[in-house]
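Repro:
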Amino acid sequence: ISVTDEDRVWGIDVLKDGQGLVTADSSGVFRAYDDVTELEMMERRRDRVTDILARQELNNALLAGDAAKAVRVGFRLGPKHLRRAVEGTSHTAVEEAVADLGLASCLELLNASHEWAKKGSRGIGCAMIVAQAVFKEYGVETVVKAFGARASVPLEGMLKAAEKGMDRLAVL
């Protein structure tokens, strides 16, 4: 890549408040830039604090035995935390949480279950608990009608993982 005089910036000036700068090039184009570093750092800090509070809320729910709340909070935090919540709760609490989360969250629950099932026997157990809760609450027809082929992909993956796990048990 060659740089010609036409491509170069011919003027640069920092704004009085120090929060931005203005550049000008040989074609007469002026560009203004705002320094958003401090704002981004504040957003990252806020996100980190929110994440820490949510993790603490998950821990408190698990310690207090509020399993349904733990599953709901785990769902908000993502698949890793959801699995932790499912592992620490009863089938009934998972069913209650699935009902509270609603049909719209079923695809995300099934996708997370599919990922867990890929990771071995403990993951398959958690995946099957969530899948059972989803289908007990909403029924297979309702889930398939709502999500179509998108729901079949995680289910097929869970079935393959379960078959693989059963084959390993047969060898033992």
